[in-house]
Design a protein that fits this description.
Layout (H helix, E strand, L loop, with lengths): L2 H19 L8 H6 L6 H12 L2 H13 L11 H10 L1 H7 L7 H7 L1 H34 L3 H48 L7 H10 L18 H18 L1 H8 L4 H35 L11 H7 L2 H26 L3 H29 L9 H9 L4 H36 L6 H25 L6 H10 L2 H9 L8 H20 L1 E3 L15 E3 L6 H15 L6
Antiparallel strand pairs: 1-2
Helix pairs in contact: 1-9, 1-18, 3-9, 3-13, 3-18, 4-13, 4-18, 4-20, 5-11, 5-13, 7-8, 8-9, 8-18, 8-19, 8-20, 9-13, 9-18, 9-19, 10-13, 11-12, 11-21, 11-23, 12-18, 15-16, 18-19, 21-22, 21-23, 22-23
């Protein structure tokens, strides 16, 4: 990065801090700070929701998944529109008419304080764990892009988000999220345009898509029903719907958004906006990853995208790696020629030859990663560095700064809302609810700001303890899937008259235990390779993939809550 790019990045960070805190003087009580006086516009809330989901995790990780595998991850979001419509009819009216501060308040009215505190605690635990990952993963990538110490990038992200969230509250969060969403979309469009403009003259947009399709990169739908496979149409429509119901119906970080709306109609509209936009946006991001793959058939690409550190540089200087690199570059030349031959004559013979060369390239990369892991003694994954590598090596000065600012924006937008929601739950479900002596409005306001600072420091410290991760888009969703379904099961029980506080708490405990037990079960593979998204112990695969943990948790909680209940049937 040059001076122009650094200047753009610093201007962006400075503007974000100013924009997030400039209205902080208007907050007179916790309702102002945590719910923005319930006066936010539906479109701003909807864009804020999209900004949180289109985070650095999505920006970096999703493009990497499509590059390495295909576009089947889009199935993950198939349940989003279904879930949003269901919530608009069921839980959203409950929350808005009750003028609740948190999602868990309405549980107390039906099941008592113990259920409210239990679900709130699980939210704090799950979101607290995920937030460290949410900071650490993009910070690690940005530290390598900017050639800065990891500690420094973690502190920039953690402190910046904490400051404007602490003073600006949810209003500052939503305002900054709207601008960050615009910047992220601009960054994606710039990258997409640059890819296709830089392709060889004989490979236009249509031919590029044909190449991607020939290599299986455009595969989006898998109709096979397999509980141990992460992404197919059934996991998306069934398990994905439960995940989105849980996420937007019982996770305070999302519920708090539409609690800031002016009316029930605005709250519903704020959910329907991401319901309509999320799948097309995710498809576009995945298509960006597939397009990158086509670009690097012809472009100058390394064997591994991981930026070199001291240990890795030592390994790369060894003869064994240099031989692999030389073989890979020779294969690159042959594969590019084969791709052109296929475009000139798209016969089965040319397609088989191209796919054979592509498989060899994949195996060489895998061999290099295996040897690097053996040399360094730690797991290595270059999925999260593909888009950043393209940005640094293919874009001109100025555009690099804009894209890096977009990645920072994505990182900040995914953290600020979590910080605010953790504060809301801590203050309203615990501190104010359990505090016998009532205090002044200003007291609770400053305690809320102090709580935001506490969570921000805790998350930043957690991020400092984490290192490089697997695909970050999957990791955060996995953490949530351990808790979301079971918590949502409690909300379903609001409509079950037989359910009692005791049966609900037993169901919640058994649901969490069941989910964690199933997540640990593996079975031996019948073949040497299982699926594309392989992350289980060698020679084994999961009996139940993480998306399915959501409906399992919900069903167990509802079954026990109903079965052991003694209320009116």
């Amino acid at each position: 990065m040059g001076p122009i790019d650094w200047g753009i990045l610093l201007l962006f960070l400075g503007y974000t801090l100013w924009d997030g805190i400039r209205h902080h003087g208007g907050a007179k009580n916790v309702e102002d700070l945590l719910l923005a006086k319930r006066q936010m516009s539906w479109w701003a809330i909807g864009l804020s929701v999209l900004a949180t989901q289109a985070s650095a995790i999505t920006f970096i990780g999703t493009t990497g998944l499509a590059f390495m595998y295909d576009m089947r991850f889009v199935q993950f979001y198939l349940g989003t529109p279904i879930a949003m419509v269901i919530l608009c009819v069921t839980l959203v009216p409950f929350f808005v008419r009750a003028k609740a501060f948190t999602a868990y308040e309405i549980l107390e009215k039906r099941f008592g304080l113990s259920v409210r505190l239990s679900t709130s605690f699980l939210f704090l635990l799950s979101r607290g764990l995920a937030m460290g990952i949410t900071i650490a993963a993009p910070a690690y990538v940005l530290s390598l892009i900017l050639n800065l110490e990891l500690t420094f990038t973690i502190l920039i992200i953690g402190i910046s988000a904490t400051i404007y969230t602490m003073f600006g509250g949810i209003g500052g969060v939503i305002r900054t999220d709207v601008k960050q969403m615009v910047l992220m979309l601009a960054g994606l469009i710039i990258c997409f345009g640059a890819i296709w403009l830089k392709l060889p003259d004989q490979v236009g947009f249509h031919n590029g898509l044909e190449l991607a399709g020939a290599l299986g990169k455009l595969k989006t739908i898998d109709f096979d029903f397999d509980l141990s496979e992460k992404y197919n149409i059934w996991s998306g429509l069934i398990a994905g719907t439960f995940l989105m119901l849980s996420y937007f119906g019982s996770d305070q970080s999302q519920v708090q958004r539409y609690l800031t709306s002016r009316s029930l109609g605005d709250a519903r509209a704020s959910l329907l906006l991401p319901a309509m936009v999320k799948i097309p946006m995710q498809f576009f991001i995945l298509l960006l990853g597939a397009s990158l793959y086509v670009f690097y058939i012809f472009g100058d690409r390394p064997l591994l995208f991981i930026p070199s550190d001291e240990v890795q540089t030592e390994f790369q200087q060894q003869v064994e790696f240099q031989e692999l690199e030389a073989e890979f570059q020779e294969l690159q030349t042959t594969r590019a020629a084969s791709a052109i031959a296929y475009l000139e004559n798209p016969s089965n013979r040319h397609q088989k030859q191209l796919k054979s060369l592509d498989t060899k390239a994949h195996l060489l990369r895998k061999e290099a990663l295996t040897r690097l892991e053996a040399h360094t003694g730690q797991a290595r994954n270059d999925t999260n560095y593909i888009l950043p590598y393209f940005i640094l090596h293919e874009l001109p000065a100025g555009l690099i700064g804009i894209i890096i600012a977009a990645i920072f924006a994505a990182a900040l937008s995914s953290i600020d809302s979590i910080l605010n929601s953790l504060t809301a739950s801590t203050i309203m479900d615990w501190y104010q609810r359990l505090h016998v002596r009532k205090r002044s409005a200003s007291h609770y306001l400053w305690v809320a700001r102090g709580t935001t600072l506490f969570w921000g420091i805790l998350a930043t410290l957690a991020a400092l303890l984490l290192g490089e991760t697997e695909s970050i888009i999957e990791l955060v969703n996995k953490v949530g899937s351990y808790f979301y379904g079971s918590i949502f099961g409690v909300f379903i029980l609001l409509w079950v008259k037989r359910a009692t506080p005791t049966s609900v708490l037993i169901g919640l405990a058994v649901g969490i235990l069941t989910v964690f037990t199933l997540s640990l079960l593996h079975q031996e593979m019948s073949t040497g390779i299982y699926g594309l998204f392989y992350d289980s112990p060698k020679g084994y695969h999961r009996v139940l993939e993480y998306l399915w943990l959501n409906p399992v948790g919900a069903v167990v909680v509802v079954a026990i809550g109903w079965g052991m209940g003694r209320g009116k049937s």
